[in-house]
């Protein structure tokens, strides 16, 4: 994920980054890195040297993207659980499979993105030392590795009920087309939202809820999916601000550039849409007060704080809110859904009504 790009012809791949004479004047930051520095700490740093480019390719050292892909899956699983009368063990098992799938498919998506952008990444400060861009991995090796990831993702998908296969396969088309969308529109985040939010549909069939024969579940899934699309556009708009100077210099389009002077207004609108659609999903699913207070309320508060606090001209601050806003908003929604599931599983609402 990075700022959207205008249609630029690919040059033959080289093991070296473009020379300064070929490159448009990008950032003037005096702190810009001039050479690649291998990871010095963390899990990736402990890997054999030959493995590090592959770990960097799938962003193993930056798990925020995996969390963003996983959260819609757990949202839909917990929202569908009362409809399916799912047990806690069923929910845990399904959630574990979804997390494994999110880890694999997020990595595959990053690799596909880097293959498409291999001649563009060297122009952007934040991406110029990615493995393919700096020549640590050839496109052929990256492509083979990506194929193995997609096969692993298919293996995970096959662990779900058969109907999940038919719901899951269309998402592969979105995974491969997102990098293309960045070349033709200022709003590739909409395509990214359609891609990253797919899990908001998958939790229902994963627990045996047939969306095509259950009108209420279809409404709930559609509203939840749309809510997650709005969330994706929101957080990726903040992410795009990290590249805004390089995007201008390189002639790259982005949603951050398109709305540079009214970003917070757009973010506020997206947050309102996200929370409204989340509430709509709860109504369709027959959720109770805990959902609306805990899930919708926490989302509204966390999004409001993030939009208020984020400093869009500060790269580090944008990154902090992108990384931690995921856990604040996604975690709050998840906790609200967990308590809603417990309330329904223990007949808390019925007991309250009987007391009156």
UniProtKB/TrEMBL annotation:
UniProt cross-references to CDD domains, sorted A to Z: PT_UbiA_COQ2
GO terms classed as biological process: isoprenoid biosynthetic process; ubiquinone biosynthetic process
Protein name stated in the entry: 4-hydroxybenzoate polyprenyltransferase, mitochondrial
Sorted UniProt keywords: Isoprene biosynthesis, Membrane, Mitochondrion, Mitochondrion inner membrane, Transferase, Transmembrane, Transmembrane helix, Ubiquinone biosynthesis
Function text: Catalyzes the prenylation of para-hydroxybenzoate (PHB) with an all-trans polyprenyl group. Mediates the second step in the final reaction sequence of coenzyme Q (CoQ) biosynthesis, which is the condensation of the polyisoprenoid side chain with PHB, generating the first membrane-bound Q intermediate.
InterPro entries, A to Z: HB_polyprenyltransferase-like, Prenyltransferase, UbiA_prenyltransferase, UbiA_prenylTrfase_CS, UbiA_sf
Recorded topology in the membrane: Multi-pass membrane protein
UniProt record similarity statement: Belongs to the UbiA prenyltransferase family.
Principal location class: mitochondrion
Keyword Transferase: yes
GO molecular function, one term: 4-hydroxybenzoate polyprenyltransferase activity
Disordered: annotated segments: 1-35
Keyword field contains Transferase: yes
Gene Ontology annotations for the cellular component aspect, listed alphabetically: mitochondrial inner membrane
EC number: 2.5.1.39
Compositionally skewed regions (Low complexity) per UniProt: 9-20
Coiled-coil ranges from the UniProt annotation: none
Involved pathway(s): Secondary metabolite biosynthesis; terpenoid biosynthesis; Cofactor biosynthesis; ubiquinone biosynthesis
Cofactor requirement: Mg(2+)
TM spans (from-to): 67-85, 91-112, 190-208, 220-244, 265-284, 290-308, 320-343
Catalytic activity: an all-trans-polyprenyl diphosphate + 4-hydroxybenzoate = a 4-hydroxy-3-(all-trans-polyprenyl)benzoate + diphosphate
Record localization: Mitochondrion inner membrane
């Amino acid at each position: 994920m990075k700022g959207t790009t205008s249609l630029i012809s690919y040059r033959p791949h080289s093991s070296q980054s473009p020379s300064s004479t070929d490159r448009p004047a990008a950032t003037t930051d005096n702190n810009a890195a001039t050479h690649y520095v291998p990871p010095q700490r963390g899990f990736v740093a402990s890997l054999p040297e030959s493995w590090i480019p592959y770990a960097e390719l799938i962003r193993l050292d930056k798990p925020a993207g995996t969390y963003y892909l996983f959260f819609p899956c757990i949202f839909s699983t917990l929202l569908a659980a009362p409809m399916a009368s799912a047990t806690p063990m069923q929910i845990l098992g399904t959630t574990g499979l979804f997390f494994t799938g999110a880890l694999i498919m997020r990595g595959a998506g990053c690799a596909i993105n880097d293959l498409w952008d291999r001649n563009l990444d060297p122009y952007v400060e934040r991406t110029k030392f990615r493995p393919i861009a700096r020549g640590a991995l050839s496109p052929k090796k990256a492509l083979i590795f990506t194929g193995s990831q997609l096969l692993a993702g298919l293996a995970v998908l096959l662990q779900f009920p058969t109907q999940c296969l038919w719901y899951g396969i269309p998402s592969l088309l979105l995974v491969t087309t997102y990098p293309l969308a960045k070349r033709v529109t200022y709003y590739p985040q909409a395509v990214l939202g359609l891609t990253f939010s797919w899990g908001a549909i998958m939790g229902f069939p994963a627990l045996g809820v047939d969306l095509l024969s259950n009108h209420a579940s279809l409404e709930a899934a559609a509203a939840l999916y749309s809510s997650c699309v709005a969330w994706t556009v929101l957080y990726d708009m903040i992410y795009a601000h990290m590249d805004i100077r390089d995007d201008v210099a390189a002639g790259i389009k982005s949603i951050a550039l398109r709305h540079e002077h009214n970003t917070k207004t757009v973010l506020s609108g997206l947050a309102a849409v996200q929370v409204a659609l989340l509430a709509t999903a709860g109504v369709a699913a027959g959720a109770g007060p805990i959902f609306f207070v805990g899930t919708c309320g926490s989302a509204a508060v966390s999004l409001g704080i993030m939009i208020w606090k984020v400093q869009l001209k500060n790269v580090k601050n944008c990154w902090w809110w992108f990384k931690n806003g995921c856990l604040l908003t996604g975690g709050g929604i998840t906790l609200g859904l967990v308590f809603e599931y417990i309330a329904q599983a223990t007949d808390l609402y019925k007991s309250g009504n009987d007391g009156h």
